[in-house]
Write a structure and sequence with these properties.
The chain is of the alpha/beta class. The chain has one domain: Alpha-Beta Barrel (TIM Barrel), CATH 3.20.20.70. The chain has 9 helices and 10 strands. Helix 2 packs across helix 3. The structure holds iron/sulfur cluster. Iron/sulfur cluster (SF4) binds next to loops.
């Protein structure tokens, strides 16, 4: 299976605080899957998919020095047993599976979670997903919480790729799923409300988070978004890890 590789050559598996969504502030081990089936313009884990030679644009294309990533240097091939072993090295029994898009490799991650639960039934598993791929039953049986982040028009992905009805219906019907939206402009709210109606979601299952890869951008968007959450009955999420550590990888 393919795991994001740090510049040290190690897999991106690290012990930190959950920085987003309903578990914000809870200590957890993160494992970052390489590969994604979407290509968001503002993606802050573009090293999981924006490979040299691919056609996808990114908002950083115009920044001096930005270039697409060397695939070989950006991902590690590991077995599920090795991934589980690296996760278990940390003194924590909460795991956040993130990416990239982990469900691209759902069979392999099912094996990882099975191995961990086999070692210790106390493990709690969060799975972060863009909501375009339906989990298999074997994986669903293991997952405690889905952090589903459907992508809006602001992501730059075609609608047919970012909104997959069958997958969204699965998550909407799951009591384990929370819907987190990255908001960068006022116009995003109408899309979120339309999806809420389409999926018949209670407002408290919806979390709005400002888009931003630095503390200054988050600060400028925070107040407006918090007020919209109060009006609509949505939850608000900041990006705790950006506040604490900036955009540093592996934190
Ligand atoms: S779905 Fe997530 S990982 Fe994939 S491109 Fe979009 S933001 Fe990045």
């Amino acid at each position: 299976m393919k795991i994001a590789q740090l510049s040290t050559g190690h897999p991106e598996i690290f012990h930190t605080l959950q920085g987003e969504g309903i578990s914000t502030g809870v200590p957890a081990v993160f494992v970052r899957a390489s590969q994604c089936n979407l290509h968001c313009l503002w993606c802050d884990t573009d090293y999981t998919w924006n490979w040299t030679g691919t056609p996808w644009p990114h908002e950083k294309d115009s920044e001096a020095g930005y270039q697409k990533f060397n695939r070989q240097q950006s991902q590690l091939e590991m077995t599920p047993t090795d991934v589980a072993g690296a996760i278990r090295e940390h003194d924590c029994r909460r795991l956040v599976v993130t990416g990239g898009e982990p469900l691209v490799q759902q069979k392999e991650f099912t094996d990882v979670l099975k191995i961990l639960r086999g070692w210790d039934p106390e493990w709690t598993f969060e799975l972060e997903t863009n909501g375009t791929i339906r989990p298999h039953e074997a994986l669903d049986d293991l997952v405690n919480q889905y952090n589903v982040s459907p992508k809006l028009t602001n992501s730059g992905n075609p609608t047919r790729l970012r909104l997959v009805e069958e997958a969204l219906a699965f998550f909407a019907a799951s009591s384990k799923a929370w819907f987190k939206f990255v908001v960068s402009a006022a116009s995003d709210l109408a899309e979120i409300t339309a999806l809420q109606d389409q999926l018949d979601l209670a407002p408290d299952r919806i979390v709005l988070m400002p888009e931003g890869r630095d503390a200054t951008t988050l600060r400028t968007r925070r107040q407006w978004l918090a007020d919209r959450c109060i009006e609509k009955g949505y939850r608000y999420s900041d990006r705790l890890h950006i506040q604490l550590w900036g955009n540093e990888r592996g934190r």
